[in-house]
Specification:
Number of strands: 25
Radius of gyration: 18 Å
Helix content: under 10%
Strand order of the largest sheet: 1-22-21-20-19
Number of domains: 1
CATH architecture: 6 Propeller
CATH superfamily: TolB, C-terminal domain
Number of helices: 1
Length: 304
């Protein structure tokens, strides 16, 4: 066991304004995930464009929000979907893992959204969750659905730029957030219902071998979204505990970031000055938090 790391409290960067809250409106997402409790928004998928604008998704109501560096919030698109993860491609398009429709692509300038990859071999996904771009443009993404310890059949995929789909793992009890290390030979994978982070080595032929558990956590609901910095330190959102942990590349706890606004911290992304600030979604309250970090985050535009 390790000693407790230093703790800091995140501060509020922005919040979804009341005028954009769907108070009193039901959704299939809230009916299942929160037993029908009112959920006027549930934000995830933070990602920055090259202009420094932050984009987040709103799962229950099929929305994508744009948040300017000054904190102004607007709706980019509202559609019949359940968007979760969001990452920007090198050409400026936003790719979205939509639980209902599969991989979607969004033009953030026009608001046009359309399916990108929805039915491999005519079979729909269980419910895709999050994604990460490799340096060459390959998309790594998780297919979570309602999997868990009772049904460890969640999947980790890679969609190559030539259209080939590789199923890297098919035995995961609730795969969620994921990142590639700087060398791009390891996927770090949040396994929510097992409350741990897996280390998934990538072989030259695209398969994996000797996948293992890198970090075992406790409390909360388990890890959700993650972000990685230039030294392979891993920021892990511990949803249900209201904490983001920073682990070293060796798995040692380096920092604890506490949420001042709720326990459902679900996802995070590096941005801000020198790319050394971590922006965190507290999903239930619709709040975006921010904390200063010791190392610059890995750029998401390396595949140029």
């Amino acid at each position: 066991m390790f000693a407790a790391p230093p703790a800091v409290e995140a501060r509020v960067f922005a919040k979804i304004p009341d005028r954009l809250s769907k108070v009193g409106q039901r959704s299939a997402f809230a009916d299942v995930q929160f037993h029908g409790a009112e959920t006027p928004h549930f934000i995830e998928g933070p990602s920055f464009d090259r202009q420094g604008n932050l984009f987040v998704t709103d799962i229950p109501f099929g929305r994508v929000f744009k948040i300017t560096p000054s904190g102004d919030v607007s709706v980019v698109v509202e559609y019949d979907g359940e968007p979760n993860g969001l990452k920007f491609h090198r050409d400026g398009r936003a790719f979205i893992t939509d639980h209902k429709h599969g991989l979607m692509v969004l033009d953030v300038n026009t608001g046009k959204i359309e399916p990108f990859y929805d039915r491999p071999l005519l079979t729909r996904f269980r419910g895709v969750n999050d994604l990460f771009f490799g340096a060459q443009g390959d998309i790594y993404f998780t297919d979570q659905g309602q999997t868990g310890l009772h049904d460890p059949s969640g999947r980790l995929y890679r969609l190559r730029t030539n259209g080939q789909l590789d199923c890297i793992l098919s035995n995961i009890p609730s795969p969620n957030g994921l990142v590639l290390n700087v060398e791009e030979n390891i996927v770090m994978l949040a396994v929510t219902r097992a409350n741990c982070v897996w280390r998934v080595p990538l072989m030259k032929d695209g398969t994996t071998s000797k996948t293992g558990m890198a970090i075992q956590m406790t409390g909360g609901f388990g890890p959700d979204g993650m972000a990685i910095d230039a030294e392979n330190n891993l920021a892990v959102c511990h949803v249900g505990l209201g904490v983001v942990w920073l682990f070293s590349a060796l798995g040692e706890p380096m920092l604890r970031i506490n949420s001042p606004k709720g326990k459902l911290v679900t996802n995070c992304a590096y941005g801000g000055k020198d790319n050394k600030q971590l922006f965190i979604t507290e999903s239930k309250t619709g709040t975006i938090l921010v904390a200063d970090m010791p190392v610059q985050g890995r750029t998401m535009f390396s595949h140029m």
